[in-house]
Specification:
389 residues; 11 helices; alpha/beta; 6-stranded mixed β-sheet
Length: 389
């Protein structure tokens, strides 16, 4: 028998952004149903490192979203049992320069961030080793970002879903959305899945890398592309990397439009003991082939930052696909082309950190409140020809 469910809002996607959207919408009093063709955190979220960063964002809309999200993550972590459940660590980040001219550029970048509300503390060479004693010798300095934090992404998404359900939300995993239902006037009236229909006046597209496919089901274009990245995981170690540590050129790689392979060293310890090593970026579609050259490049970059890692075993590697939009900003908010359709996708590699702010803003829009941030830069229809002309 065909199932038919009703609710106020369908959230498509049970990754971190979908989980946060469901949580804040449910806490705002809406009847929420989350649907995903796979398990919770089965896509990009489960392949992430769990970064909650302000350090890699230049002044502008994404940084404003990151600052809002950081405050919201901190507030969630202060709720009973949440910090332990999601492995929240407010450990801060350290960005290091490899040469004096790189340090000058890094300090100029940090000055702009400070003007936008980021705590960015210059670190001289001698003080650098007080923060991270095992760094390679001879580095000229860096910048310390106390606001950077980390969660364990799969645990965090699962716990946010549990919190959403405690607030009244429902979850349906293993339900693949096959169509977005619309009225004769073009407005959303729910979704069709392979398990039946879900009727609702609002649909939130939190489908991550597949956000463009969901948008197409609603008859609109959203140019989300997959950007592949690898992570190496070492054997468990005593804590020897105390912050998220990365080279200054990582910021340029994040902002790059290149489809070619880019790697820059990113190293961080975890509460469980293993060290996570990234980061790579390349646009190769959904090719899941493991790349030994990428793994070697990541290992080489990590050992340049932390030579002791040359004696440490990498236990495994994994890959995921960041949902990339051409201007490096996510799509957040109502779609002017389809009444009732809202987007919360395209966060590239920052979705874990930006999820809380995104979910909070989506809930404000759904409940007809004025959003805490101007959503104009994130408007989903900004890629239409008349918008870009």
């Amino acid at each position: 028998m065909t199932k038919r469910l009703t609710c106020d809002v369908v959230v498509v996607g049970a990754g971190m952004v979908g989980a946060a959207s469901a949580l804040y919408a449910a806490r705002a009093g809406l009847d929420v149903l989350v649907v995903d063709r796979g398990p919770v955190a089965g896509g990009t979220t489960g392949a992430g490192e769990g970064n909650l960063l302000v350090s890699d964002k230049e002044p502008g809309p994404e940084l404003e979203l990151a600052l809002l999200s950081g405050r919201l993550w901190s507030a969630l972590a202060a709720e009973p049992s949440v910090a332990d459940a999601v492995e929240y660590e407010a450990k801060g980040g350290v960005v290091v320069a490899s040469a004096p001219d790189g340090l000058t550029a890094l300090e100029a970048f940090a000055a702009g961030q400070r003007a936008a509300g980021v705590t960015a503390l210059p670190v001289a060479a001698d003080a650098l080793y007080a923060l991270e004693p095992h760094l390679a010798e001879g580095l000229p300095g860096g910048v310390h970002y106390p606001q950077d934090a980390q969660v364990m992404p799969s645990l965090a998404a699962a716990h946010l879903v549990r919190m959403a359900r405690a607030a009244g939300a429902r979850l349906r995993t293993g339900w693949a959305v096959t169509d977005v239902l619309r009225t004769r006037g073009g407005a959303v009236r729910g979704v069709r899945t392979d398990q039946g229909e879900i009727h609702a006046p609002a649909v939130v597209n939190a489908a991550g890398t597949w956000g463009g496919e969901l948008a197409a089901l609603a008859g609109v274009a959203l140019p989300v592309l997959p950007r592949r990245g690898f992570v190496l995981v070492t054997e468990p170690l005593p804590r020897r990397v105390h912050h998220k540590v990365y080279a200054a050129d990582y910021v340029a790689d994040v902002a790059s439009d290149s489809a070619a392979l880019q790697t820059s060293p990113v190293v961080e310890g975890t509460a469980a003991g293993p060290v996570l090593i990234g980061a790579s970026r390349e646009r190769v579609g959904f090719d899941r082939t493991f790349s030994l050259p990428v793994a070697r490049a990541l290992a080489a970059g990590a050992t340049r930052l932390f030579p002791f890692l040359g004696q440490v075993r990498a236990m495994r590697g994994y890959l995921g696909f960041r949902p990339y939009l051409p201007d490096h900003l996510p799509a957040i908010g109502p779609d002017a082309r389809v009444p009732g359709l809202h987007h919360a996708c395209g966060h590239e590699g920052a979705g874990i950190g930006l999820a809380t702010g995104t979910g909070h803003l989506i809930a404000q829009v759904l409940t007809e409140k004025t959003p805490d941030l101007d959503l104009t830069p994130f408007r989903p229809h900004r890629f239409e020809p008349e918008e870009t002309a």
